[in-house]
Amino acid sequence: MESKTTLVSTLESTFSELDKAIKRFDESTFNQRPAKGGWTPAQVAQHLALAGTGIDDVLLGETRATEGAPDRQVASIKDVFLNFDLKMTSPDFIEPADEVYDQNALLTQLKNVGDTLVKLVNDIDLSPTCLAFEVPVWGYMTRLEIIHFVIYHTQRHTRQLQQITF
Length: 166
What we know:
CATH class: Mainly Alpha
Radius of gyration: 16 Å
Shape: globular
CATH superfamily: dinb family like domain
Number of domains: 1
Oligomer: single chain
Helix content: 55-70%
Order of helices and strands: HHHHEHHEH
Strand order of the largest sheet: 1-2
Strand content: under 5%
């Protein structure tokens, strides 16, 4: 299991790269549909905001002691999210609506998600299993696995943003 310092560094760099990827779009392209179809850059950012909002409630919610290694699902999470040949569909509850989004508001919201996670990594034991939310495919995850889920999910969509052309 990596150190909290390494995890914080990974979170900070992941959210910094996301910020840069979002800022490469100007006001006219942020809500524009890509040439190849799919979500607008704004919808990608909104999807990440929906996925990240409330994650602190899950991390700070009811937990139980973890049986086995607290990072046992991390490799699986990484393999799925960083397999860019794999096409996925979003669960409805984090599916972005087809509407116009404010870039600065989303940048602020996503920065807050990243900052909150960094603080929590430093402040809490990452080994307990969270019982407030069952993640599709993986089930109940440890705090450490949830942090990695957010990292790899964010990295996947950052790459998506970096590759959008009009």
